[in-house]
Specification:
Number of domains: 1
CATH topology: Phenylalanine Hydroxylase
Low-confidence stretches: 1-5
Number of strands: 6
Structural class: alpha/beta
Helix content: 40-55%
Order of helices and strands: HHHHHEHEHHHEEHHEHEHH
Largest sheet: 4 strands, mixed
Shape: globular
Distance between the termini: 46 Å
Number of helices: 14
Mean pLDDT: 94
Strand content: 5-15%
CATH class: Mainly Alpha
CATH superfamily: Aromatic amino acid hydroxylase
CATH architecture: Orthogonal Bundle
Radius of gyration: 19 Å
Strand order of the largest sheet: 4-3-6-5
Length: 302
């Protein structure tokens, strides 16, 4: 069978193509489909990241990597990841076939589920991949989910998506509804990008990395901390929600928080600003939103 011979390589997997064609977003991880090449890619990624994690990652991430007992030599089974993760914070990795529309993604977080890509990049293309893969999701994101304070901030962020849906679905004028929803989602996406994906944290030893986009990038994790080309600022909510970003190069502007309790408080303030209308007209620009993102927040009927 062709699916079994092709492995689970990102953008090259018949299994994923078939799941998407049949409308399956939430799937089971078919571990037997991983090829030798897939496991080699994981091993190479893991091996070269370990020294950089020791230098630049925050202490909670390092503790999380140890707690998850990830095998450095093969792609992890999600059931094994969840066996170690669930007792710590109630979070679980949830396999998906591809892109998850914004509201569904945030709703998963609210339910302590993390949508997890199961494919992995090719072993000869380790440095940059515009699509997420299992290394980014499991080695980048999930170790942070072992920390209670960080996990609670993610759940709180999921609550904000429900607040956004409540607000926009109370608006009768369709043009206004779409305009405000677009602005709110952009603000949430920017906040998520500059915290959960590309966040830095203050520490007694200087700035450390907690954002998964940095934790899964061999080149950018070091660049984020040591490069004089990066502007690093304490996180100001009004800056972040109006700051565009692009995904195809190293980030020139990054923000740091003091702690995960500080991050939780910032999410609280984000929701308060949402209710007060302060997210209704953020600066235009990236990220551009998919129609599916907008529709995921809108009720079909009252």
């Amino acid at each position: 069978m062709a699916t079994r011979l092709s492995g689970l390589t990102t953008t090259e997997s018949p299994f994923i193509e078939e799941a998407q064609a049949s409308g399956q977003l939430y799937i089971q991880q078919p571990f037997e489909l991983y090829s030798e090449e897939n496991h080699l890619a994981w091993a190479r990624l893991f091996e070269r990241m370990q020294p950089r994690w020791e230098l630049y990652a925050n202490a909670w991430f390092l503790k999380g990597i140890e707690s998850l007992c990830l095998d450095p030599n093969q792609v992890p089974r999600l059931e094994d990841v969840n066996r170690f993760l669930d007792p710590l914070t109630g979070f679980r990795a949830k396999a998906v076939s591809g892109y998850v529309p914004a509201f569904l993604f945030f709703d998963c977080l609210r339910n302590r589920e993390f949508p997890t890509t199961i494919t992995i990049r090719r072993s000869d293309r380790l440095d940059y991949l515009p699509e997420p893969d299992i290394f980014h999701d499991i080695a980048g994101h999930v170790p942070m989910h072992t920390d209670r304070a960080f996990a609670d901030a993610l759940v709180r962020f999921g609550d904000c998506a429900h607040t956004a849906a409540e607000i926009v679905n109370s608006i009768s004028d369709e043009t206004e509804r779409i305009q405000r929803l677009t602005s709110i989602i952009q603000a949430m996406a920017r906040f998520f990008w500059f915290t959960i994906e590309f966040g830095l944290m203050n520490s007694p030893k200087g700035l450390k990395v907690y954002g998964s986009g940095l934790l899964s990038s061999y080149g950018e994790i070091e660049h984020s901390i040591v490069s004089p080309k990066v502007q690093r600022y304490p996180l100001q909510l009004e800056w972040v929600i109006n700051q565009s970003f692009e995904i195809d190069h190293f980030q020139p502007v990054l923000f740091w928080v003091e702690s995960f309790d500080h991050l939780f408080d910032l999410v609280d303030r984000l929701e308060a600003w949402m209710r007060a209308g302060k997210l209704d007209n953020v600066a235009p620009g990236e990220p551009k939103l998919e129609e599916a993102d907008l529709l995921s927040f809108l009720r079909i009927s009252a």
